[in-house]
Amino acid sequence: MKQAGLFDCNPIDLLFHERQVRSRGFQVIAGIDEAGRGPLAGPVVAAAVILPEHCLIKGVNDSKKLSPPMRDRLYDEIMAQAISVGVGMGSPGLIDRINILQATRHAMREALFQMTTQPDYILIDGITTIDTTTPQKTIKKGDSLSISIAAASIIAKVSRDRLMRELDGVHPGYGFSGHKGYGSASHLDAIRRLGPSPVHRLTFGGVKEHLQCLSS
């Protein structure tokens, strides 16, 4: 008999890593993921999510595999069911100063700091650890293998997309609402025509070639 709560579209046991960690004596497990490492504009955003034990929210998966309406629906459900959620950001200026990898690690630490409940163990998507005394484990493609990381990926993605829509109103002409800062043809054309905005990453290719526009 199929376990109650699992869903047909994803046969992977999304609670496997959480159970494995709990078998070692840890109880409060946070998943961490980020959104926005690749765009030419806007911050990198990280989220940390602690879900109740045995919690499986139908449809939760890697945010990149979900439609925007599905992500929005799951965002609300995760926020309603989570024990704690934290969101952190690395600004475009910080990315330019310390590079995207270090800015991502900063955003992840900030997401942890923002949580009202602190975890005793962390599961992180990818291969990069963060500076914290809390025990941690990195998982390649963790957003498809761990319910906690998948939930964090959705919170991070939706939070960043909503921010980029807000920035579209503050810095019109670049189309941030549509491409969310990624290097689409229309976005690259807008940078060529208008020059970089205050929320562009000035060290990224596609932007740095047009810095002279800022002083013209």
Topology:
Blueprint (H helix, E strand, L loop, with lengths): L15 H7 L6 E7 L8 E7 L17 H14 L2 E7 L1 H7 L1 H14 L7 E5 L10 E4 L7 H24 L5 H4 L5 H10 L17 H4 L1
Parallel strand pairs: 1-4, 4-5
Antiparallel strand pairs: 1-2, 2-3
Brief write-up:
The protein has 216 residues and is an alpha/beta fold. It has helices spanning 16-22, 68-81, 92-98, 100-113, 147-170, 176-179, 185-194, 212-215; strands at 29-35, 44-50, 84-90, 121-125, 136-139.
| C-alpha geometry | elongated
Beta fraction of the residues? 5-15%
Distance between the termini: 68 Å
Order of helix and strand elements from N to C terminus:
HEEHEHHEEHHHH
The CATH architecture of the domain at 16-159 can be given as 2-Layer Sandwich
Q: Helicity, in percent?
A: 25-40%
Stretches where pLDDT is under 50 for at least 5 consecutive residues are 1-10
Q: Identify the strand order in the major beta sheet.
A: 3-2-1-4-5
How many helices?
8
Integer average pLDDT: 92
What's the Cα radius of gyration?
A: 18 Å
The CATH topology of the domain at 16-159, please? Nucleotidyltransferase, domain 5
Task: Specify the CATH homologous superfamily of the domain at 16-159.
Answer: Ribonuclease H-like superfamily/Ribonuclease H
Number of strands: 5
Largest sheet: 5 strands, mixed
